[in-house]
């Protein structure tokens, strides 16, 4: 899994794309961009924060793990944000285990370079803080969604967000992984996937998901998707 120079890969991260050219150039000169593969653990809970991680393509999950082995996703992160937001609030360690759900690539920026960028470029600090606010919105909406909305609505919203984060392209995601993220049985995920397939909203074959009709998929989701999406930085 080799290092990929940022200049060789498109920059999709919205925090970076929101910056002024001189700030983007600084970040590009300091980051290390690497491939990320589904199942990789990028951060363990309470691990010291040495880098911020900016997904360019792919999806990460901040996971909660119970004593009995059950898991659920606290929040997901794609190209709209970064891992390490607690550093902005004075934290020095990760608050959650962060796992790659959908493969892609991401850029690592050391905490020292992060501090320098925030001190030199107001636009960088502002973009980081705006994302932190968007993540808080996602966390709050997720609590409401998990309590009030159906499994089909939650799955549909997750797939819509994935479609945004993957630039509208197909992506690989197993039913087991989505079930772990949403605390749903695989049989439930399979039934919902079949319903969405029959409606023409998605195609699903051998773990590859393609959103065929966003409007149809959106009709199966709840309002939480719109609230979370509207809080994020716009695409670059």
Automatic annotation (TrEMBL):
Keyword DNA-binding attributed: yes
Classification lineage: Bacteria, Pseudomonadati, Pseudomonadota, Alphaproteobacteria, Hyphomicrobiales
Keyword Oxidoreductase: no
Residue intervals of the HTH crp-type domain: 153-218
Gene Ontology MF: a single term: DNA-binding transcription factor activity
Protein name: Crp/Fnr family transcriptional regulator
Alphabetical list of SUPFAM superfamilies matching this protein: cAMP-binding domain-like (SSF51206), Winged helix' DNA-binding domain (SSF46785)
Signal peptide: none
Keywords on record: DNA-binding, Transcription, Transcription regulation
One cellular-component annotation, GO: cytosol
């Amino acid at each position: 899994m080799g290092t990929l120079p940022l200049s060789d890969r498109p920059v999709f991260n919205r925090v970076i794309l929101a910056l002024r050219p001189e700030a983007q150039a600084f970040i590009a000169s300091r980051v290390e961009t690497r491939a990320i593969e589904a199942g990789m653990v990028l951060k363990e809970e309470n691990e010291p924060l040495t880098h911020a991680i900016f997904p360019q393509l792919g999806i990460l999950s901040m996971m909660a793990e119970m004593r009995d082995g059950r898991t659920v996703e606290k929040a997901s992160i794609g190209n709209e944000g970064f891992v390490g937001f607690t550093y902005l609030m004075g934290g020095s360690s990760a608050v959650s285990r962060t796992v790659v759900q959908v493969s892609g690539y991401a850029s690592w920026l050391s905490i020292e370079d992060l501090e320098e960028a925030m001190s030199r470029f107001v636009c960088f600090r502002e973009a980081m803080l705006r994302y932190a606010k968007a993540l808080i919105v996602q966390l709050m909406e997720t609590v409401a969604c998990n309590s009030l909305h159906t499994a089909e609505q939650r799955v549909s919203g997750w797939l819509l967000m994935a479609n945004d984060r993957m630039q509208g392209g197909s992506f690989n995601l197993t039913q087991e992984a989505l079930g772990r993220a949403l605390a749903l049985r695989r049989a439930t995920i399979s039934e919902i996937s079949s319903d969405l397939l029959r409606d023409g909203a998605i195609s699903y074959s051998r773990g590859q998901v393609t959103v065929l009709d966003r409007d149809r998929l959106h009709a199966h989701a709840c309002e939480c998707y719109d609230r979370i999406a509207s809080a994020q930085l716009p695409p670059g």
